[in-house]
Sequence to fold (379 residues):
Amino acid sequence: MSKEPKKKESILRNSGVQTIIGSLLCIIIGLLIGYIVLLIINPGGAGKAILAILKNFLYYPSAVAATKYFGTTLVKASALLMCSLSVLFAWKVGLFNIGAAGQYVIGVGACLYCGLKLSMPWYACLIIAIIAAALVGGLSGALKAYFNVNEVISCIMLNWIGLYAVNMLLTKVKEQSTPYTRPLGSTNKSALLPNAGLDKLFANNEFATIGLILAVVMAILVWIVLEKTKLGYELKATGMNKNAAKYCGMREKRNIILTMIIAGGLAGMGAGIFYLTGIEQWMVQQTSVPAMGFNGIAAAFLGGSNPIGVIFSSYFIQHITSGGSYVDKTMYCTQISDLISAFIIYLCGFVLFFKMWLNRYLNKRDEKRAAKEQKGGEA
Fold:
């Protein structure tokens, strides 16, 4: 038998390759369903709409403009990446951190208050945002560890508590004539993250900062911690079976709390590297939790719950989300891109079934091949 089929077989049996193929199928099917929805709403502009969503910054004919808005997409994707890492880290330890959105909000409140009210430099604002969000995450972990309160329930409650607490806190740094906080650029420039030359790389986009690099570095660090360290092994063991981990001498309560602290800190860091660019101002009359935290759930699962995979899935989710702003508003609403993202999210559950089906198919193929070889040998 030739060596080539064996090589192909080994690639197809690789779990990472199977996840990538499954995720790509989810994206293609999700886009196809989205296109069908566009056809139902208004068939005349469906083709242009789906192309606008996919093109995003490439919508601009000018290379300079496209490069600049590419940088803006990356800035938003970096914050989304941190939220997806928050969800992923908890998920790896058997916890569902639906509170990433609320922890993100707490991080926003902490970094903006420190930057606008206390005139702190960017590194202090960023550290305080991480600590504040980590404490909120740790609170959910403590409730889970000591009182067996489901983390989903406590996180959802803390999402809304955090939102309205931050709204009240940031009214102290609000502009007089608008419901938005004062801009960091004109209030405290020291609170802005340094560009380190990245602004020139993206056609003088002032929002391109070291936050882009920090987000990718954190993804790599999360992968190292989970896959290559004793701490990561203990955390994952606790998630698989809390009682077994306790029997083996692991401190399961500490591990649960520590997991949620780290998850919260990651979401808070996402808020810091986004708002400390000065790209947006917080609206203190906001009545809904930002979608960034919830989109992190989508990116985490689309990336196969792998820290490296979510770098790419976070960018893709943000790419099509930003692309929705270029859809013809007279025919469709900008939220159509969110609808397509939702289709892709729901289809992410298909990845597991795809992997099961593929492994079953490969097993049957191997059995048939072995049977043929056995018959050939007997002959």
